[in-house]
Amino acid sequence: MFDWIAIIFFWGPLILFIYHWFIFPLILILLVKFLRKKENQPEFTDFPKITIAIAAWNEELTIAAKLHNCQELDYPPEKIEILVGTDAVTDRTNDIVRSFADKDSRVRLIAVNERLGKSAVINMLAENATGDIILFTDADVLLAPQALRISVGHFRDNKVGLVLPAYRRQNEKGIVAEGLWDKFENKIKELEGKIGAAVGVYGWAMFLRRSLYKPLPPDIINDDYVLGIFVFRQGYKSVYEPKAISWTRVEPPVVEFKRKMRISKGNAQQFFRYSDILSPKYGLVAWIFFSHKYLRWFIPFFLISILLTCAVKVSIPFFRVLLILQLIVYLTTPLVPYVKGKLRKMLIPQYYVWVNLALLAGYWQYFFGKRPKYNWLRTERRID
Questions:
Q1: Mutual orientation of helices 348-368 and 317-332 as an angle, nearest 10°?
Q2: Where is the chain membrane-spanning (predicted)?
Q3: Residue 153 lies inside a defined structural domain of this protein
Q4: CA 261 vs CA 158, 229, 382: distances in Å
Q5: How far apart, in whole angstroms, are the C-alpha atoms of residue 88 and residue 74?
Q6: Last residue of a domain, which of 205, 235, 250?
Q7: Is 150 helix (H, G, I), strand (E, B) or coil?
Q8: What does the pLDDT read at residue 380?
Q9: 208, 223, 250 — which closes off a domain?
Q10: Do residues 182 and 248 touch, judged by C-beta distance below 8 A?
């Protein structure tokens, strides 16, 4: 006789969990091997103009370093314009940008005196952009000198609408601190990008063909994800460029928790507004969104289901052992914010639970909490 409780609430979630983390990447590897075609892309007869669009709110700690970084990028200077958009800042951000604009005609400040929210500022930047390609990038993110030149090369393919540079995190000593999570995400995006379906869009740096830009709804939370959706809806490809490096500072676990909460709220919003991307008409893109993104959003519920099933079936030795192991991980998860350095590598399962707790907290806040009028999250940190 089948144990339907175990099948539905334990084996079902466990199989989906294993599929998401292990089977899906293996299938991607095979798809890349058999589907990827080497194409002879036409060379640019001229470098396309790029608009670097920076949405900033109270970024006096980072904006100067950001603008210096933009000015030093290895790309024809006359082919770059730098736009900074702000709304009702209360610090010296606007003054700093104006000081750069006085010395460099490529720099322009687009400032409004009322709070509009990040999506509205991004829309303003896109409306004022004159480049063929828009690089949307955060104020606390720096780019490697060759990032523009390497990334823009992908737009030789007229079907490429979006290019995602690689991202890295640096600690306070400037040492690259790429965790297991980041390594996995970057590798998955690289595989997806090789077949034109890199769905893991991060807003801290993304190159978009300007002709494909669609205005963002004013209340959107994860603007980067939605811009990617708009590109796929129009039938264009998204690729990942591992040699174009962008980086920012490592966030403390508590700050990272809040950031992931915000992303989680956006996930809930996306689920209800943009699930049409799962339509069969989008083919491979739909499958990748389901396998990479949608299953990821449900992982916290899979973990809860597995835990509760083990508790209900505790009289069975197999489930009893699994329950004990899970409880050890869950009860030690509160240590994550306090453990640093090499010891943190010993807490990989706990960190994973920590991340999923942030997702759950974000879902709770989206459905039951007060929704802020302005979806704008910033971190108090300096970049050099």
A1: 80
A2: 6-32, 296-314, 321-339, 351-368
A3: yes
A4: 36, 21, 22
A5: 33
A6: 250
A7: helix
A8: 53
A9: 250
A10: no
Coil vs helix vs strand at 377: coil
Looking at the structure, tell me whether residues 169 and 20 fall in a common domain.
no
Total residue count of the chain as it appears in this document: 384
The sheet with strand 80-87 has its strands ordered as 107-112, 80-87, 50-55, 133-138, 205-209, 160-170, 237-249, 142-143
Q: How far is it, in rounded angstroms, from Cα 159 to Cα 174? A: 37
Q: Which residues pair with 55 in a beta bridge?
A: 85, 138
Residue 352 belongs to some domain of the structure: yes
Q: What is the CATH number of the domain that holds 69?
A: 3.90.550.10
**Mapping DSSP to helix (H, G, I), strand (E, B) and coil, where does residue 129 land?**
coil
pTM of the model: 0.91
The verdict on residue 270 lying in a domain is yes
**Tokens for 106?**
């490529």
Give residue for tokens 């108090």.
380
Tell me, yes or no, whether 87 and 210 share the same domain.
Answer: yes
Structure token digits, residue 88: 């009702």
Which residue has 């389901």 as its token pair?
A: 290
341: region left, alpha or beta (phi > 0 left; psi from -120 to 50 alpha): left
CB 58 within 8 A of CB 115: no
Same domain, 22 and 80: no
Please give the residue range of the domain that contains residue 130.
Answer: 50-250
Q: Output the pLDDT for position 2.
A: 58
Per-residue pLDDT of the chain (384 residues), as tens digits, is 458 888 899 999 999 999 999 999 999 999 999 887 665 555 566 799 999 999 999 999 999 999 999 999 999 999 999 999 999 999 999 999 999 999 999 999 999 999 899 999 999 999 999 999 999 999 999 999 999 999 999 999 999 999 999 988 776 555 454 567 778 888 999 999 999 999 988 878 999 999 999 999 989 999 999 999 999 999 999 999 999 999 887 777 788 888 899 999 999 999 999 999 999 999 999 999 999 999 999 999 999 999 999 999 999 999 999 999 999 999 999 988 888 766 777 788 998 999 999 999 999 999 998 766 655 655 555 555
What pLDDT does 34 receive?
86
Distance, in Å, from the CA atom of 159 to the CA atom of 195, rounded to the nearest integer, reads 12
Residues 6+ apart with CB under 8 A from 158: none
- Residue carrying the six token digits 């002709």: 211
Tally of domains in the chain: 2
Residues 9 and 131 placed together within one structural domain of the fold: no
Q: Is residue 347 part of a domain?
A: yes
